[in-house]
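Q: what sequence does this backbone want?
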């Protein structure tokens, strides 16, 4: 048995290191091999630009993929929502482990819930998707809020609230849970209010396609239900020709009858960031049994959204 350490490429952020550490333990469990973390700085980590300006797609991923292709690391862990929808031929997502909570959450001053925020509340988020849905919800419920573009790590973002500059910030539940800070959440945003980013809460474990033994070993960490759900969500995103910074929310969830999973529902939304124009649709059907089936589900819903004018709501199309 090969007991040489496997090298796991990871971003340096606290969240990435926490995610990668959790995956490393799981990989050691299934392979019996030690795993060492190799920290890699990506363009998305060093750029001070707003994510929407630097194109979103791939900014946190390219350096990790380069390291994989050069053989500097054996595998990499990504937040699935950061992965471009087109998969390079020479790399394979060997596993999509069980998904964390996909919801967005609010961290607000005075432990306030979203609907209890005062009139004129300033809510920080760098995501056009979150802005569009929060503004749409506020508009339809006569709430007076303003969304303020921010970026930075979790500490920086929560710091804006603690320091009194903002009334609340929106973050992903999964990220806070993974770094052990779920107790700072003051409100969970129902997916009926804000649909998450495609793939939110899920991780992708990627390695070189030619490394068949490692692909097979990592595949033991794959959760088929999570994979089929995120495949449908990302297929929808790709069919809308939208990058990961576009205002697209999507969630596929499994509808169970007791313990038996019967159907999958895919919901998606696209809208202008001011929340004035939204296209929101859903479709429900049998759980896709193949990758192609999941891809088709996403494409079909995207086609319906485009027929209702979704393309005009996304600003500049990602090329």
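A:
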């Amino acid at each position: 048995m090969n007991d040489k350490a496997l090298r796991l490429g990871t971003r340096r952020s606290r969240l990435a290191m926490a995610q990668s550490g959790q995956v490393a333990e799981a990989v050691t469990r299934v392979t019996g091999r030690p795993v060492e973390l190799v920290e890699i700085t990506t363009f998305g980590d060093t750029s001070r630009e707003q994510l929407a300006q630097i194109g979103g797609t791939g900014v946190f991923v390219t350096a990790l993929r380069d390291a994989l292709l050069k053989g500097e690391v054996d595998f990499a862990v990504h937040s699935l929502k950061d992965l471009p929808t087109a998969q390079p031929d020479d790399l394979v997502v060997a596993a999509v482990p069980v998904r964390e909570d996909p919801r967005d959450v609010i961290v607000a001053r005075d432990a306030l819930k979203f609907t209890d925020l005062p009139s004129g509340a300033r809510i920080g988020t760098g995501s056009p998707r979150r802005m569009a849905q929060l503004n749409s919800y506020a508009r339809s419920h006569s709430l007076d809020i303003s969304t303020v573009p921010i970026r930075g790590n979790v500490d920086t973002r929560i710091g804006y609230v603690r320091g009194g500059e903002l009334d609340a910030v929106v973050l992903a539940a999964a990220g806070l849970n993974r770094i052990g800070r779920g107790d700072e959440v003051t409100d969970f945003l129902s997916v009926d209010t804000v649909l998450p980013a495609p793939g939110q809460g899920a991780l992708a474990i990627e390695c070189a396609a030619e490394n068949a033994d490692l692909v097979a070993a990592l595949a033991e960490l794959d959760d088929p239900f999570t994979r089929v759900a995120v495949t449908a969500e990302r297929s929808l995103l790709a069919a809308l020709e939208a990058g990961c910074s576009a205002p697209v929310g999507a969630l596929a969830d499994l509808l169970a009858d007791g313990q038996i999973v019967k159907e999958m529902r895919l919901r998606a939304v696209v809208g202008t960031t001011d929340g004035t124009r939204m296209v929101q649709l859903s479709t429900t059907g049998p759980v896709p049994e193949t990758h192609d089936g999941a891809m088709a589900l996403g494409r079909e819903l995207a086609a319906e959204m485009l027929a209702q004018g979704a393309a005009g709501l996304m600003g500049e199309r990602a090329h």
